[in-house]
Design goal:
Elements: H1 2-17, H2 20-31, H3 37-61, H4 63-67, H5 70-93, H6 103-109, H7 115-151, H8 154-179
Helix pairs in contact: 1-3, 2-3, 2-7, 3-6, 3-7, 5-6, 5-7
């Protein structure tokens, strides 16, 4: 029983760091009876909201430092424009903007948004996200596994190719270091 606890703890951190891919994998595992779907859903909700709150509060506490960095100035301006035009829609849908899952709560933390408001929209967004990806995982999980079975034979060629590239690179480095006198 203890090893199942470790699976869910690893799943929590996987969702916290990555998100969609880890969650879809867990849903597919649950659809085949390896995990409990309800625990998967609860852990995904907890990990996602915890991640959002951590980055939101990091943005709140480090707002001055973020505002002075050129990299963040453009993101903050972009979020400001989106918030002014479509505040509620943006707060609910940012989770679905690929590549902005971490940056958006950070930037939102620099805005004039209370933590209670952020939590409310984070919960709504997370429930929509979890529902959508649970349906996708349950619906297409078998198709994904079937597709991966066809790829299984290719993995040996991929691993062999990567090893060949690594060996070639090491030989090239060795020869180059020997020729420089």
């Amino acid at each position: 029983m203890l090893h199942y606890l470790w699976v869910y703890i690893c799943f929590f951190f996987g969702i916290f760091i990555e998100g969609e891919l880890v969650f879809l994998s867990a849903v597919i595992a649950a659809s085949h009876g390896y995990l409990n779907i309800w625990l998967v859903i609860i852990v995904a909700i907890m990990a996602t909201i915890t991640s959002d709150l951590l980055y939101f509060n990091l943005g709140k506490n480090r707002a001055e430092k973020l505002m002075n960095k050129p990299k963040w100035k453009t993101k903050i301006e972009s979020v400001n424009i989106k918030l002014e035009k479509h505040r509620r829609l943006f707060l609910v849908s940012y989770r679905f903007l690929y590549g902005l899952r971490i940056a958006t709560p950070l930037v939102l933390g620099t805005q004039n948004i209370t933590q209670i408001t952020f939590i409310k929209y984070s919960i709504i967004s997370t429930v929509i996200w979890v529902t959508l990806f649970t349906i996708l995982g349950l619906s297409f999980g078998e198709l994904i596994l079937t597709y991966l079975k066809h790829i299984q034979n290719i993995e040996y060629y991929i691993i062999g190719g990567l090893l060949a590239i690594a060996i070639f690179f090491l030989i090239f480095r060795f020869v180059k270091s020997r020729t420089v006198i």
